[in-house]
Amino acid sequence: MPARRRAVPAPARADVRVLALDHVQLAMPAGGEGAARAFYGGVLGLAEVPKPATLASRAGVWFRVGAVRVHLGVEAGFTPAKKAHPGFEVDSLADAIDRCRTAGVRILDAEPIAGIRRLYVTDPFGNRIELMERTGEETRG
User: How many Å apart are CA 4 and CA 2, to the nearest integer?
Assistant: First the structure.
């Protein structure tokens, strides 16, 4: 069997830099679009946006509110992300908690961080989502 050659990364260009986070991709099982719409659209208030024509035939659903973009894609052999997660800043954590409780969404406490009230919820597929509200001085890392 011939030896596998490893790709050698090209040297980084000094003038290339990351400008922003464009979107977060989360996985879901096949057929989960309706549940994704109910949670991300109905509970969290993100608007569904059409996928580009080149990706429209693929399963999944995309959402956006302001600069926040979340893409849910179908993953074969899906396993929920229990540790890795997006953190969404909300304008009222109390209102977010009420919406989640009303919808029967599981809510988990999170360790406090200076200047931030926060908690975790799980989406309909078991993916961890952090919801946070800034309350004043905080340390960003």
Answer: 6
* Domain that includes residue 111, residue range: 24-134
pLDDT digits (tens, 9 = 90+) for 84-107: 999 999 999 999 999 999 999 999
Looking at the structure of the chain, the number of domains it has is 1
Query: Rounded CA gap, 17 and 97, in Å?
Result: 37
Strand duo 61-65 + 128-134: pairing: unpaired
* Residue 114 falls inside a structural domain: yes
The model carries a pTM of 0.83
Which residues share a beta bridge with 119? 109, 131
Model confidence over 59-87: pLDDT tens digits?
Answer: 999 999 999 999 999 999 999 999 999 99
51: CATH: 3.10.180.10
Q: Is 85 exposed, middle or buried (0-12, 13-18, 19+ CB in 10 A)?
A: middle
